[in-house]
Amino acid sequence: MGMGKTVSVLTALDRLDLSGSLTGPTLILAPLRVARDVWPAEAKEWEHLKHMTIVPIVGTARERLDALHQKASVYTCNYENLVWLIETWGVHWPYTTIVLDESTKVKSLRANIRKNADGTEWVQGQGGARAKALLKTMHTHKVPRTIELSGTPSPNGLEDLWGQLFYLDYGKRLGRVFDAFRQRWFRPNFDGFGYEVLPHAQKEIQETLKDVCLSIRSEDHFDLKEPIVRTIEVELPTAARKAYRELEKTLYTEISMTPVEVFNSGAKTQKLLQFCAGAAYTGHADDPGPRKWIEVHQEKLNALDEVIEEAAGEPVLVAYHFKSDLERILARFKFARHLDQKSQTLADWNAGKIKMLCAHPASAGHGLNMQHGGSRLVYFSHSWNFEERSQIAERIGCVRQLQSGYKRNCFIYNIVVKSSLEGDVLDALENKRSVQDALMAGLRRRLSS
Q: Do 266 and 356 belong together in one domain?
């Protein structure tokens, strides 16, 4: 993860196109946000790729149909719409290259290719609906090139590899039938539940796949003393963006008929950051009882879901700023826990018993050792406090990892709303600009856009 798979694939596709090796357009299947935002944005970031036209096939049925009629060399689509896409094209399937981004999405495949006495072939077996539909389409239309990308190809063990590799070689390397693959490299557990890997399996499977798989370890190419930072931009839904703009300009807006207003510029910045996080407080801070809030959007929760999936079981520390953030995260992710005052919570984290731990930077600062629990930090929401931000990052930082004997990279994810105050916050924190300068520069950018 973080090794530049996206730009590498786009560069390869560009070279193949220039050499005349591509006879048709490319289809990239990816998680929704990645298909909609990441792939198109990546091409614009690189001078040698700016000429590429990438069209996302996402959105409503009408929007997806319109995208199919736009001329492009590369199309992106989320996995959830794959069956719709196959049914829409029917026998006129146009894509000659398929890229499976996060290929573990189709790891459930258990089908195989059967041949009749007359030589005709057909797909038989089990697996998810999307996985089987994709295999049938690739086989029927003889798709000549398939590329798979994954930072965690076997999150639950080597058994996950069979379904993914079948799309590449139809069983040539790992076997045409899943049961035969399992009998060759696994054995039943002693308790009768599940299977365990045979001692020789890892080395033999790697040797078998070395001609079609390229694996790059981040620790071989990055300084372990510096974290790998990834900014994940999310787009506000139309209604939320409209409300955000109104509040930014007039200090007042409405969400689901509920008024939201502020009375000075300082309060406005806090309210805008609440909007970006996904919920806005209503009423006044001095009102009796717990403060009430109303949800504005779930885009950040969706992005956090993708980070958790990418982590493939590795623990993730999530930094939040507002209490509404914590409530919404705990409601969405039932396995998540809050870093409270109980010493057992910290002990459970460092013992690897907590998959997601939510912590406010002010409560996870000086003195806490959290590096034993994991090396991934997500900033779900943001504030202007540089010290708190840097302190929570240091709890699982690269130096602490090395000091504790862990040779693993640290990953920091910034989930940021595109074209919003959050960008100004990061700009001020990263470039040591004053709050006022960052606010004014960001406001000028947005008002002129």
A: no
